[in-house]
Amino acid sequence: MNDAEFERVLRECTPEVLATLVRRGGASGDLGTAEDALQESVLSAARQWPTEGIPDNPRGWLVTVASRRLVDEWRAGRARTDREQAIARRAPSDAAASPAADRPLPNAQDDTLALMLLCCHPALSRPSQVGLTLKAVGGLSTRQIARAFLVPESAMAQRLSRAKARLRDVGARFVVPSSEHLGVGSLRRRMCSTSSSPRATPRVPAPR
């Protein structure tokens, strides 16, 4: 496995893995904590994959490793008295179990959509929305995003950090809105209304 192949697999996998990790934190999942867990799994992959090869399901592998980091974080941040309740609330038993290596991730498309909508929360400025989406959903590095915005990497890192803190402050939720909230229902009704309305018969000019 060469570096280019490793980077390609990570670029394809990390957005869905990050979305899954945020979902496992509940509707109020912390994007920053999920990103830290993802980075730990990427470092583990960088150590193991070059010698052991890329697993059949790299997404499931990354989710498994990152989920262990999340559980460790949850346990370290809570006393024993409320730890079990907190973990039960934020990681239900059916969501806490990572998928087997030969199984695709469930709800991957819905999770990615919810992650994109979280990054585009109206409490964020437009530049912060774009930068956070490129980072979390697009899988770009902070350096690549800074280059696109023509700003120093340190400035972009601070902007992304402030954006994630802002999401925590406003209690942004990791959910997929209903089709009505997204405007899909009204769009569908307009399309149906248009298709069912009588159409005028085109006029054919009389021959001369």
Describe this structure in words.
The chain has 208 residues and is an all-alpha fold. The protein has ten helices and no strands. Helix 1 (3-24) packs across helix 6, helix 2 (31-52) crosses helix 3 and helix 7 packs across helix 9 (153-170). The chain has helices at 3-24, 31-52, 58-76, 80-90, 93-96, 108-119, 126-136, 142-149, 153-170, 184-196. It is 67% helix and 0% strand. The protein has one domain. It is globular and about 45 Å long.
Provide a concise account of the structure shown:
By secondary structure, the protein is mostly helical.
Helix and strand arrangement:
Elements (H helix, E strand, L loop, with lengths): L2 H22 L6 H22 L5 H19 L3 H11 L2 H4 L11 H12 L6 H11 L5 H8 L3 H18 L13 H13 L12
Helix pairs in contact: 1-2, 1-3, 1-6, 2-3, 7-9, 8-9
Which terms would index this structure?
single chain, 208 residues, 67% helix, 0% strand
Instruction: Give the helix tally.
Output: 10
Number of structural domains: 1
The fraction of residues in strands falls at under 5%
Give the distance, in angstroms, between the N- and C-terminal Cα atoms: 75 Å
What class, by secondary structure content? mainly alpha
| Oligomer kind | single chain
Order of helices and strands: HHHHHHHHHH
- The backbone outline, from C-alpha atoms, is globular
Radius of gyration equals 22 Å
Number of strand segments:
0
